[in-house]
TrEMBL record:
Family annotation (PROSITE patterns): ABC_TM1F, ABC_TRANSPORTER_1, ABC_TRANSPORTER_2
UniProt keyword Secreted, yes or no: no
Domain ABC transmembrane type-1: 18-300
Organism: Arthrobacter cavernae
Name the UniProt record assigns to this protein: ABC transporter ATP-binding protein
């Protein structure tokens, strides 16, 4: 998967990669040429006392060194730009893929691991590409070229190369094999600590309300300790790696000086040749060391690439139709035909044999106990999930045959947990209709009973909103989300328990204003409070995922025991209060 990802995302940058390879090649050749020039100065210039030769060869050495520096800088510059561009494209692909996931797909992976895969995992692959572009050409050429040049200087000392290089490769290979499973475990531990931290941040109010800080601190401590233990094991291997490499380098240097010194003493070898051989041996070992850095990064990057590939290769559980159907009319008629839905892995369906019709100009209400399947039911219309059997129709066409853009233009949903994005109130209201006028925004705010508190601040529509809307109250957040839905002026409104945080008076004013603005639209309301749905044209009573009763408020009071229990429980609660 690592090779596949790099190949796929490096194609647009082949010219830059070619430039990096050329500069790396030039820099490596210059590096290999310098020891040979140094040997000539010692053996031919110094020994003969030829000053002109020393100046000429020294000037050539300076020119080669200067060229080596320039080509090395150019290689690193283009390599860094290319690696960052590949990382950018890869992050964008992961983001777009996750953005197209259905709620079912997101639940399959989990938010913490998706965040890690789109950030930390991509960064590991990006860093491997950077190291690869910097060392990919230099390492093999330096190693092979260094061996050839060393053998040219003195063939009898070549056995030092054949001994030291395999030993170094064996040590590095053993450590890399040990590192692979640890890096895989490390990424999972990062997922875990991200999940715990994300839960604590999102649920900080609940944590503080129940005084669970010590418990959450313990959870985080355990996740943190697990990550630390894996990191320490990896660090221990790194601690072994660098001293081992250093020892091999120093022993090789000592061996060259010992055996080479004997050859110099016997007159079989020149001092310059010995110096050059030593430099070439060090270059060979340094090349192997650079390969070591690559080898250390490959296991972790390979694990990360596999995790990224799992996300990119997932085919969304909800597909857009190949040939979308455009409904002949745009009225907002909603129909459920014998719908059954079951969450993946669940033993029993959440909804069973649901059938009803909601006509334009009418209000359909859904009520039932907690866990009856109310929110799941309304999430089927905008295709957050697809049904297991049966059909959901919008204006006579199954939603599976409609383009998603067509669905969202007709259906506006206010979720059970209202969410606002960081920015301004104006930015949030225009989320569903970017070209909405300021007059339309204020009109929607007035209908949603949010105009007063928005006007209280001098900034008005430019008032800043924190991520998630945490700097406004729950009721204000709900009203702003309702206003956002009203701005789009759809044909179908879905209110999933969107009035629960409002007081009775505000709830009454809001519903009255809504009736005036949604006279030609289909309104579907999920509610816990009977007073919110008492004036609905039709009320569905859900129990254990089935419609047990349906009718108006008055009809259900006479015929539905389940509805009567709900009404009586709420009246009793009001009396107690």
């Amino acid at each position: 998967m690592l090779v596949t990802l790099i190949r796929r995302y490096s194609k647009p940058y082949l010219p830059q990669i070619l430039a990096v390879l050329i500069f790396q090649l030039a820099s490596t050749i210059a590096t290999l040429y310098l020891p040979s020039l140094n040997a000539k100065i010692i053996d031919e210039g110094v020994s003969r006392g030829d000053t002109d030769f020393i100046w000429r060869t020294g000037a050539l050495m300076l020119a080669v060194a200067f060229g080596q520096v320039l080509t090395a800088i150019a290689a690193v510059y283009f390599g860094a730009r290319t690696a960052m561009a590949i990382g950018r494209d890869l992050r964008r692909s992961v983001y777009r893929q996750v953005s197209g996931f259905s709620a079912q797909d997101v639940n399959r992976f989990g938010a913490p691991t998706l965040i890690t895969r789109g950030t930390n995992d991509v960064q590991q692959v990006q860093m491997l590409v950077l190291m690869g572009l910097n060392f990919m050409v230099a390492t093999p050429i330096m190693c092979i070229g260094g061996i050839i040049m060393a053998l040219r200087e003195d063939l009898s000392l070549s056995w030092l190369v054949w001994v030291s290089v395999p030993i170094l490769i064996a040590v590095v290979g053993y450590l890399v094999v040990r590192l692979m499973p640890l890096f895989r475990s490390m990424q999972k531990k990062i997922d875990s600590i991200n999940g715990v931290l994300r839960e604590q941040i999102i649920g900080i109010r609940v944590v503080r309300a129940f005084v669970r800080e010590p418990y959450e601190a313990k959870r985080f401590g355990e996740a943190n300790r697990d990550l630390t233990e894996v990191s320490v094991k990896i660090g221990n291997l790194f601690v072994l790696m660098f001293p081992a490499i250093g020892m091999i380098l120093h022993l090789s240097t000592a061996a060259v000086l010992w055996f080479g010194g004997q050859r110099v003493d016997s007159g079989d070898m020149q001092v310059g040749a010995l110096t050059a051989f030593l430099q070439y041996l060090l270059q060979i070992l340094i090349a192997v060391m650079m390969g070591t850095f690559m080898a250390m990064m490959i296991p972790r990057a390979s694990v990360c690439a596999d995790r990224i590939g799992e996300v990119l290769d997932v085919e969304s559980s909800i597909h857009d139709p190949g040939s979308p159907v455009a409904p002949a009319e745009k009225k907002g008629r909603v129909e459920f035909r014998d719908v059954t839905f079951k969450y993946p892995g669940a033993e029993a369906p959440v909804l069973s044999n649901i059938s009803f019709t909601a006509e334009p100009g009418q209000t359909l209400a859904i009520i039932g106990s907690t866990g009856a399947g109310k929110s799941t039911l309304v999430s089927l219309l905008p295709r957050l999930y697809d049904v297991a059997s049966g059909e959901v129709l919008l204006d006579g066409v199954p939603v599976t045959e409609l383009d998603r853009a067509d669905i969202t233009s007709r259906v506006a949903a206010v979720p059970q947990k209202p969410y606002l994005f960081s920015g301004t109130i104006e930015h949030n209201l225009r989320f569903g209709k970017t070209d909405a006028t300021e007059e339309e925004l204020w009109d929607a705010l007035e209908t949603a009973q949010a105009k007063d508190f928005v006007q209280e601040k001098s900034s008005g529509l430019n008032r800043r909103v924190a991520q998630g809307g945490t700097n406004v109250s729950g009721g204000q957040r709900q009203r702003l989300c309702i206003a956002r839905a009203l701005v789009t002026k759809p044909k179908v409104y879905l209110f999933d328990d969107s009035f629960s945080a409002l007081d009775v008076a505000t709830d009454s004013r809001l519903r009255k204003a809504l009736r005036e603005k949604t006279q030609d639209a289909t309104v579907i309301i999920v509610a816990q409070r009977v007073s919110t749905i008492a004036d609905a044209d039709q009320i569905l009573v859900l129990d254990n995922g089935r419609i047990v009763d349906r009718g108006t408020h008055e009809e259900l009071l006479e015929t539905s025991p389940t509805y009567q229990e709900i009404v009586e429980s709420q009246l009793a609660a009001e009396e107690v209060a």
